[in-house]
Amino acid sequence: MKALDSLLISGRELLPIVEGGKGVSISNGLSAGAFAAAGCVGTFSGVNADSFDDLGRVIRQVYHGKTRRERYEELIAYGIQGGIAQARKAHETSNGSGRLHMNVLWEAAATPRILHGVLEGAKGLIHGVTCGAGMPYKLVEIASEYGVYCYPIVSSARAFRALWKRAYHKYRELLGGVVYEDPWLAGGHNGLSNSEDPEKPETPFPRVRELRQEMSGYGLDATPIFMAGGVWYLKDWVDWIGNPELGPIAFQFGTRPVVTQESPVSDQWKKKLLTLKPGDVALHRFSPTGFYSSAVHNKFLEELMERSDRQVAYARAPAGDLAEPLAIGARGRQIYLTPDDKARADGWIDAGFTEAMKTPDSTLIFVSPDKSVEIRTDQQSCMGCLSQCRFSNWAENEAGTTGKLADPRSFCIQKTLQDIAHDGDVDLNLLFAGHNAYKFAGDPFYGNGFVPTVGQLVDRLLTGD
Predict the structure, then answer these.
(1) Quick one: CA dihedral 293, 294, 299, 302, positive or negative?
(2) What does the pLDDT read at residue 198?
(3) Which entry of 151, 328, 413, 434 is 20 to 30 Å from 19 by CA?
(4) Domains of the chain, first to last
(5) pTM, full prediction
(6) Strand-pair partners of 253
(7) Mind listing the pLDDT tens digit for each residue in 334-364?
(8) Strand arrangement of the beta sheet that strand 311-313 belongs to
(9) Predicted local distance difference test score (pLDDT) of residue 22
(10) What is the rounded distance in angstroms from the CA atom of residue 20 to the CA atom of residue 120?
(11) Residue 419: in which H helix or E strand, if any?
(12) Is 457 helix (H, G, I), strand (E, B) or coil?
C-alpha cells in the first residue's frame, strides 16, 4: 500500500481521510470527534441533528404547531439547537486533534438560517462546512462571516464551474476543498443530472481529472479534491495517490463508518449492513426532493415500487381510448380509463387496493384504505423539512406551496429518517447506503460481527484494506 501523505485541510495538516456527513443523526458529534481524534476529518450532520436534555438523553423532535409554517419554525429551532449540541460533543471528543466539519443539504429547510444559528452558537468549534443536494451559491458568503472553510459537493466539473463563477471566486481563500461525489455509487441523494443515465455508470477518474483541470484554470492546483462515493479499500485507489493529473486527493468514507462503535445507529442497522449482498442497494427516484438516491432494497422500497406499479392514466371526461368509466372516492365520481387499465384497476380493487389517489401527472395510484390514511396523515403533518417537497407540496415561499398537487407516490422523508435514526425498523424505513455496502459481508475485518472503533477503522484503512 502506497503511503498517504498528509494534506492541509481546513488549516491543519491531516491524514487525507474524511468521514462522510450522513444526514439526520447518522454522523454525529461522537463519530465526528472520534475521526478528528484519529488525525482525520470528522463530519457531523447538521440536518435535523439531535440535541440533549439535562440528563444527556436525546430530545425527540415532536411538533406542536397547528400549521405547516408553525411546525417549520419549530424544525428550524430544533436544527440550530441540535447542530450546536453536536458541534460541542465533537469538539469535546476530538481532544483538539484533526478537524471538524458540519454537513448540510442546500435543499433542506432553511439551510441559511440554520447555518447562521449553528455557526454563531458554536463559534470556533467548526472548521469547515460541506454542502450538497443543490447548488449552494450562498454557502461561502455565509461561511465567510465566521471564518469557516467551504467544501461544496459536486458530481461534475460543470457544476463546480457554475459555483466558482457565480460565487466562490469572491472568497477564494475560504474554498478548503471540493468534494466530488460519484453519482452512481454514493449512498443517499445523488447528483445525477438529466444528461446522465442512471443505468450507465461512468468511471470516476476521467470525471475527477476534468474537475482538476477546471480548478487548475482558476489557480486552484493545491486545493484538495475529496473523492466520495464508492471508496472502500484504499488499495483500490493507489493510482490516485500522488497522481499529478489529480493533484492533492483526500478520500471520503460514508458507509464504512456506520459500522463502528461510535456510530449512533442501532445494532440492527449495523447487523443489516453486515449481511448485504451485491445488488441489495438500489438507485431510485421516490424521494420527495426529486433527486435520485441510493438505499437498501427492503420492504419500504418494495411498497413504494408496488404503489407506483398500481398506476393508470385517467381523464375526467371520455377522451379517445380513455372511455371506460370508473367510480372513485366517497362520492363515486366518475373518471375514465383505457379498457386495459380499467381491467387492471378492477383487479387491484378486488385485491383490497380500493383507494384511488391522484398524482400531479394525471394518473391514479391504488392503495389500501390503511395506506391511504397514512399518506394523507403524513401529508397533513408536514413540518416543511425541505425547501420544496413533492410529497406534501410544501415550499419555502410566501404561499407555502409548490402550487402542484401533492404526490402520493413519494413519502415523508423526515418521518422515516427520524424513525430509523432512533431505533426504528430497518426493513420498514428508508435505509440509505452506498452501493459497495455488500463488501462488509466479505471482509474478514468484520468477521463474526466485529464492530471496530473509529480508531481501529482508521488503522485498517491505512493498510489499504
Answers:
(1) positive
(2) 83
(3) 413
(4) 7-279+437-462 (3.20.20.70), 299-421 (no CATH)
(5) 0.93
(6) 19
(7) 999 999 999 999 999 999 999 999 999 999 9
(8) 311-313, 363-367, 355-358
(9) 85
(10) 23
(11) helix 413-421
(12) helix
